[in-house]
Amino acid sequence: MKQALLLITCLMFAHTASAEVDTMTPKKLDMSVSSEGSLADQTEILKNDIIKLNRDLLILEEDLLFPASTQTAVFLSIDGSGLFQLDSAKVAIDKKPVGHHLYTEKEIAALSRGAVQRLFTGNVSNGKHELVIVLSGIGPKGRDYKRAAQLEFDKGTAAQYIELKIEANPSNLQPDFTFKIWQ
After folding, report:
1. Average pLDDT value for residue range 111-122
2. Are 17 and 86 found together in one domain?
């Protein structure tokens, strides 16, 4: 019984909160069963309202946690040539570790097919910064391969998006690591 009351209270709050987002005026939720709709129909409508509210809250949370003036995101992509099989990536900004990832076979396959992975999203102050990504894996001829890619970038007032591309270089049979700053 307590769980049912808690659920109804949460649903009423969520429905009222979603109505307040649109009009900023409080509204009461009518939980009585009418001849026009069954309780199941009203519950379904309420569920949809909760889903919409949750989406709005997630967007608001991201805007509050990572405002555009300080947001920086780092992405990784691979060309799929097979010259380099990625095992792990470590990300540091201004010599402070901010992220790391160990790759599964499924993730490597997805990256090889053209997927782009977000390695880091966070707040970085305006000004000059140094980004270092250390990549470990299996290189040409099955040898262990570890390499650091470095980029010095100037963070402005807008959000900053940086991609590290791992591409094959057929002339020397080595992977090339190039940064791209998205505009």
Report:
1. 92
2. no
CA distance 152 to 127: 10
CB atoms within 10 A of CB 125: 10
Name the range with the highest mean pLDDT among 11-15, 18-22, 57-61, 86-90: 86-90
Judge if 41 and 86 occupy the same domain. Answer: no
Residue type for position 62:
E
Q: What is the pTM of this model?
A: 0.63
DSSP string spanning 113-174? TT-EEEEEEEE--SEEEEEEEEEEEE-GGG-EEEEEEEEEEEE-SS-EEEEEEEEEETTTTE
Range of the domain at 51: 2-65
